[in-house]
Amino acid sequence: MTLHQIELSGVNKYYGAYHALRDIDLKIRKGSFVALVGPSGCGKSTLLRSLAGLESISAGDLVIAGTRMNGVPPRKRDLAMVFQSYALYPHMTVEENLTYSLRMRGVGKEEARRKAEEVATTTGLSALLGRYPRELSGGQRQRVAMSRAIIRNPKAFLFDEPLSNLDAALRVHMRKEIRALHDRLGATSVYVTHDQVEAMTMADHVVVMRQGVIEQQGAPLELYDRPANQFVAGFIGSPAMNFVPAQVGADGRSVVLDLGTPHTVALAKSLEAGRVLIVGIRPEHLQLAGEADAGLRLPVGSVESTGAATYVTTATQPELVVVLNSRVSIRPGETLPLHLDPAHLHLFDRETQIRLA
Amino acid sequence: MSIALRDKLMLMVAVLLAAVYLFPLYWMYVTALKTGSAMFASPPSFWPSDPQWSIYGSVWESRNVGRYLWNSFVIASGAVSLIVILGTGCAYVLARYRNAWVDVGLFLILMLQVLPASLMITPIFVGFSQLGLLDYPRVAVILAIAAKSMPFFVVLVRAAFMSVPMELEEAALVDGNSRFGAFFHIVLPLARNGILVSAILIFMQAFGEFVYSKSMIQAIEYQPASVGLNSFMGPNTNEWNNIMAYAAMYVTPILAIFVLLQRRIVSGLTSGALK
User: Fold this and answer.
1) CB contact under 8 A, A91 and B167
2) Which of A214, A250, B30, B162 has its CA 20 to 30 A from that of A316?
3) Which pTM does this prediction carry?
4) Cβ of B173 and A83 within 8 Å?
């Protein structure tokens, strides 16, 4: 048997002339939690629906647990899916919702009831088994949708933005709960979200998509530390990475940032002199420095404090966002002395937007 | 003007309009109970002084109303069954698939709605006669009514299907059901109210159908109540009380259905609005 629970190779999907998925290659290890993330319309939901069999793929191979699944109807794929709208059957009670898939597979009444109670206990729905979906709160509906997926042992769980209808506090809570559930069941999960924080915190493997193409995939911190291109760099991380047009200095060991006025900072390695670049700087990598060792002195535009951190926006063109993890008394108009570790600079080609090795 | 006064005024207007609208119905029931002289009295009285209850029994016997109503019932049920069986599938397809051809189909269906029965009857009559269908006149009328009322049913039921989210079906597919299973298990129960209401409306329409029945059913023993009522009235008719009694017996069952189910019917017609 293969180590991979789901394998996609060369998958393409067209809607008429519209090319929704382009040459998708993706291997999902058994027991891993994979997040598909990207802006709306990037194809992440289409990819998930293709896995489920709700969309057919136009070209390429889809293999689930060692069996080629192109053209196999959803019911024979043995996957469970949690929908964004939960898609609970409104004319069935919670218990009937939970046991629907079991009844479809010919499980006996008693057995199905026993399993429903078992699952309900673990998800805290025991008291609600007799209710109808319309009598539940948003969070409870979400739990029913989750329970409906876990009641059988599918080959993989598919989540289509399951938390987007919950309020912020509940969302953070359910994030942990879903991950804990995944670990406890030893399941394979594919999770679609547009929220990069969800993807980063929940997944072992993050797949960033844009316009039907996988831009980069890898471990969350790998994507954070070494984004393959400017799009991924800007998409992952909050507040977003700062991008500054720049040119390598004449010595090849420094780079001149164009912030309205030129600012020279050191490079960690030497580059071809005069090359034009985009330099990416994460907001937390700009740190307050003493007057003596400040590599960068920037005028302050605005200051916002959340209590735990201070967000400074510089009065430069383009603006830079700086996150300081200390309380500092700075006022707009003052000059901020900053330290920047050359190892933390992200360099991208200005034409191709691809990361320089 | 104060709000309370305006509300009172609006209520008065509504009551007045309802009274005007319902007056013929009232006149039918009242006239049926009047004696011959009271019927033609001038000025007319609005309440029978000597109600003739026996008129219902005698009209039922003499005009064979039972047989007419039975024929109406057979024709209406046949047409509704045919429409529900054929139209439900059609409405589902039109609700779920969106492309240019579906739009063309929908337009044609709505066009069919516009054509009046009196226009359609000639080609239908000629066609049915060549096929030999006129030898089974009630079947012929059932087919003609089904063809005429199908668009109305399809348009209403399509709206009911569209209010069932696609994701519910997809959830059923992933849960292990087939396309057909998902339709019968999930979509049909959720659209049931809309289908039921549309079927009742069509039934009431078909129960009162006249043009096709009058044209295609020659044999008196197969004629429905609408044709029977028409043949009751000649150029020199003066037995209005008997005719009104007949009409009352014909209309009361339909009215009863409507009054009993009106809450459901109204909510069914607007069910597309709520999730």
Assistant:
1) no
2) A250
3) 0.83
4) no
Q: Where do the DSSP E strands lie in A86-227?
A: 156-160, 189-193, 205-210, 213-218
Backbone angles phi, psi at A118, to 5 degrees: -60, -50
Q: How far apart are CA B103 and CA B94, in angstroms?
A: 8
Helix locations, A186-339, DSSP H = 196-202, 220-225, 230-235
> Strand A4-15's sheet: what is its strand order?
A18-29, A4-15, A59-64, A67-68
In the predicted structure, residue B272 carries a pLDDT above the cut 60 = no
pLDDT for residue B268? 60
CATH class, domain A4-235, is alpha beta
Interface test with A, best of B97, B164, B174, B192 (most A CBs within 10 A): B174
A218 pLDDT band (50/70/90 cuts)? very high
Q: Residues of CATH 3.40.50.300 domain(s) within chain A?
A: 4-235
CATH topology of domain B65-273: MetI-like fold (1.10.3720)
At A302-317, the pLDDT tens digits run 999 988 899 999 999 9
Instruction: Summarize pLDDT for A58-96 with one digit per residue, the tens.
Output: 999 999 999 999 999 999 999 999 999 999 999 999 999
Q: Hey, where are the domains in chain B?
A: 1-52, 65-273
User: Is the pLDDT confidence value at B274 over 60?
Assistant: no
- Predicted-complex ipTM score: 0.85
